[in-house]
TrEMBL record:
This is M14 family metallocarboxypeptidase. Pfam families: Peptidase_M14. Belongs to the peptidase M14 family. It comes from the Bacteria. InterPro entries: Peptidase_M14. Residues 29-307 form the Peptidase M14 domain.
Length: 307
């Protein structure tokens, strides 16, 4: 059992409003959502319809919620949702979604309707944090009466098009800061003991334990291994505490946990997890791994549809 102490709060006691305010006061802006995300999205207006589906109340002008939608939307085509930046600090989730839109999405618009939401948590992107300003994790908040407006915003967007998406790929990262900052902060916030874990060294996927879709997951792993290495299991055969079901794949009950991957009723859904802190990869390779996962997933489903 760890005796590590997070510098905010009292061990064993959940945070109250004072501790949350102290945590928020410690957060600083580190990069620009407008420059790194908004400008790139608007630059794609010739290829997609740019949709503003809301704005964060923390600063509505600074944090518009933006998505890209196929111009040739056709209700007879299967629908695909690609999301990134549910955890704003996970950079390649955001930039990978944008890169897919920039470079590969056009190849799939004949067969699919595409809806791409590159950065669900703009405040988290700017401050490089997992939570929103209320110390709430948006990726546990895709539930009725969501406590996170970031999650509620995406849920409202999805509702406009119906939950019957065929595919949903949610782009994430697992970083060294998960163990260095975010999991200790979570334990402190909830008044629990911090139990250290191992950060997986490589790319992996989180499928839906209620509908795992082994072939879909394998196709993505096989594609990504050409770009970056796949995370091995730990000594217990687990990745982040969950048993490895096949190489580089674990499963969670995505709807039960309120994860973004459960926001639709898609037959094929997964969460990607890139490892950007490896000395073996560059930022571009992390973005490319996200694109490789998306395209491989779409290629796999397209092949199934044509059988």
């Amino acid at each position: 059992m760890s005796t590590a102490f997070y510098p905010i709060g009292t061990p064993g006691m959940p945070w109250g409003e004072q501790e949350k305010a102290q945590w928020l006061a410690s957060i600083t802006v580190k990069r620009s959502y407008h420059k790194e995300v908004v400008e790139k999205i608007h630059a794609l207006a010739d290829k997609f319809d740019v949709i503003q589906y809301g704005a964060l109340s923390y600063d509505e002008t600074r944090f518009p919620l933006l998505a890209l939608k196929s111009k040739n939307w056709d209700e007879h085509k299967p629908k695909v949702l690609v999301t990134g930046g549910v955890h704003g600090y996970e950079t390649s989730g955001v930039q990978g979604a944008i890169k897919f839109a920039q470079t590969r999405a056009c190849e799939y618009e004949h067969d699919f309707n595409l809806l791409i939401a590159p950065c669900i948590s703009p405040w988290g992107y700017e401050v490089i944090n997992r939570w929103n300003p209320n110390a709430v994790d948006p990726n546990r908040s895709f539930v009725e009466n969501s406590p996170a407006e970031e999650s509620a915003g995406l849920m409202s967007l999805v509702a406009l098009y119906g939950k019957d998406f065929l595919i949903h790929i949610d782009l994430h990262e697992t970083t060294d800061s998960d163990e260095g900052e975010f999991r200790p902060a979570l334990a402190a916030r909830d008044g629990k003991e911090y139990e250290p874990d191992i950060v997986p060294d490589g790319f992996y996927l989180v499928g839906d334990s209620e509908n795992p879709q082994e072939g879909f997951q394998k196709a993505m792993i096989d594609s990504v291994r050409k770009v970056t290495h796949i995370a091995p299991p730990d000594s217990n055969g687990n990745i982040i505490g969950a048993p490895v079901e096949q190489e580089g794949v674990i499963n969670y009950p995505v709807k039960k946990l309120g994860l973004c991957a459960g926001v639709t009723d898609s037959e094929y859904c997964t969460t990607t997890e890139v490892y950007p802190d490896s000395p073996k990869v560059t930022d571009d390779e992390c973005n490319d791994a996200q694109v490789a996962a998306v395209t491989a997933g779409l290629d796999y489903v397209l092949a199934q549809l044509k059988q």
